[in-house]
Amino acid sequence: MATTTHTQTRPASERFAAAMTAVTRRLPGKLSTIVPPSLIGFALINGFTFGLDLALLTALRSWARLPLWLAITIAYCSAFTVSYVLNRAFNFRSHAPVGPQLTTYAIVVAVNYFALILGLTTALSAVGVEYHLSRITAGLCEGVFMYCALRWVVFRRPA
Q1: pTM of the entire structure?
Q2: Is residue 2 left, alpha or beta, with left meaning phi > 0 and alpha meaning psi from -120 to 50?
């Protein structure tokens, strides 16, 4: 009969949190005391979902020949659905009611989308920046905004 180790019995969200804490502890110098594990988790999750976003954007724009605004919208909504689920379950391990939290998330995502994703990406493209580079630039701005919004607004811990 096989025995189960402690690691196998821990929920995936706890294993993810432990891994992000371990990574944070290995950061050089004082970074290990400044950078929260949730930032490392956010970077990992959103790096993955940003790759998904770019892959979908490329497929929808280059292969399906959709207008840029529509390709951006479909790719963005798909990636941010995955991001919400992964960040809620693994990174911020939220147990708050989904309804109000999802409403807040939708508002944050809408602000992010119109200001940074659609606005900045389209503006940069309009002045001649290649659309992938435009989207990556907007993505860097998006990362800062979204981490702050998720940590302190969407998935905030009750006082």
Answers
A1: 0.80
A2: beta
